[in-house]
Design a protein that fits this description.
Strand content: under 5%
Shape: elongated
Distance between the termini: 138 Å
Order of helices and strands: HHH
Helix content: over 70%
Radius of gyration: 50 Å
Number of strands: 0
């Protein structure tokens, strides 16, 4: 082919590429994607507002419950102090009671051992 025919052929082949590469101008509101985006943005804003309202309600409910629990805790502490003040002091502590019990058991064991041996004397075989 001659050079003279190649230039127009090249020009004809490059036209569809240029037309294909050109982006169409979008008019706002004309495409369904922009309408969907606007709707979704509006729903997002409503959801965020609703979430903020619910979070505020939850915070208020939690603070009411915490306040009620603090009052009940104070009441129970006061009731415990009153009951402890009314209780007479103990004669012996738990440790002293167990010590006395152990001493009594040892004394009873000694007496029973002495009584069971009797007056007779046996030769002690284990001592040679």
């Amino acid at each position: 082919m001659s050079r003279r025919h190649l230039l127009p052929l090249l020009f004809c082949l490059s036209l569809p590429l240029a037309a294909h590469g050109e982006e169409p101008t979008a008019t706002p509101g004309a495409t369904p994607a922009s309408d969907d985006l606007a709707q979704l943005q509006q729903r997002l804003d409503e959801s965020e507002k609703l979430r903020a309202d619910l979070a505020a309600q939850l915070q208020g409910a939690e603070s009411a419950v915490v306040g009620r629990l603090r009052q009940e805790n104070q009441r129970l502490k006061l009731q415990l102090r009153e009951l402890q003040a009314q209780q007479p002091p103990r004669l012996l502590s738990d440790e002293q009671t167990w010590f006395a019990t152990g001493g009594a058991v040892a004394l009873v064991a000694f007496v029973l051992g002495a009584l069971s041996r009797g007056r007779r004397r046996r030769r002690r075989e284990w001592i040679n």
